[in-house]
Amino acid sequence: MDKKINEEQVTELILAAQSASSASFLQAYTIIGVEDDKLKGKIAELAGNQPFISEGSHFFVFCADLQRLHRLSQERNIDIQPMLEGVDAILAGAIDASLAAQNMTVAAESMGLGVCYIGGIRDAIVEISDLLELPDYVFPVFGLVVGYPKAKNELKPRIPMAGIYHIDKYNKDTDEIINEYEETTRRYYTSRISNSSNKTWGDGTVNSFHRLSRMGMKDYLNKQGLAKK
């Protein structure tokens, strides 16, 4: 991602993100554009040594943000602390941030840009929150690198629709579909041009969950004034 996107494009991306749906119109998210090269370098190192964070044209951190709601409730002498300390508040913020990010992604791709989500932000969530000077009731959900891709990646095969889309009730009989999908992804990974390997979707996802336990997340959220119940 050598070529830089311009400020007009950045504005268009932010406006696209803001046009996303929001539960109860909370708009419970904030987008931080990381422009300082040293700051991007520090975040790249903390987020799993991912160089494209600092090499990409633009890097955005999407945060769940309940602090605006907290301040407004105090001004009105309305106690929303029980709600802020519940799990639903962090879900609302994370969902709003995710919807905004996906809107930005669709807009970016329509402009011929490439994107890469960075979940590694949560690997060092305390340190990165300090770097970004996040206040109480705010936490980073993920990062998003946006820029002009040097090459177009091959499209990864998705789970067949029958394994994802169920009618009227949850379908528990999808093992065969997933097993077939496992073989589909093995063929994909072994035949792709770059970073080929003999693995399946299950190998990658299970190992990722096993490796990234992030067991300190609740303590961090509690420190931010959230998820105390």
Structure description:
With 229 residues, the protein is an alpha+beta fold. It has two domains: 1-151, NADH Oxidase, CATH 3.40.109.10; 154-212, no CATH class. It is 48% helix and 13% strand. The protein is built from eleven helices and four strands; from the N terminus they run αβααβαααβαβαααα. The chain has a four-stranded antiparallel β-sheet, sandwiched between helices. α1 (7-18) crosses α6 (87-110). The mean pLDDT is 94.
Supply the number of structural domains.
Answer: 2
Q: Under the CATH scheme, which class of the largest domain? A: Alpha Beta
In angstroms, what separates the terminal alpha carbons?
43 Å
Poorly predicted runs: none
Q: State mean pLDDT (0 to 100 scale).
A: 94
Number of helices: 11
Show the helix and strand layout.
Elements: H1 7-18, E1 29-34, H2 37-46, H3 52-55, E2 58-65, H4 67-75, H5 81-84, H6 87-110, E3 114-118, H7 125-131, E4 138-147, H8 161-164, H9 175-191, H10 201-211, H11 217-223
Antiparallel strand pairs: 1-2, 2-4, 3-4
Helix pairs in contact: 1-6
Family: Belongs to the flavin oxidoreductase frp family.
Organism: Enterococcus durans
Domain Nitroreductase: 2-148
Quick tags:
11 helices, 229 residues, globular, four-stranded antiparallel β-sheet, single chain, NADH Oxidase, alpha+beta, 4 strands
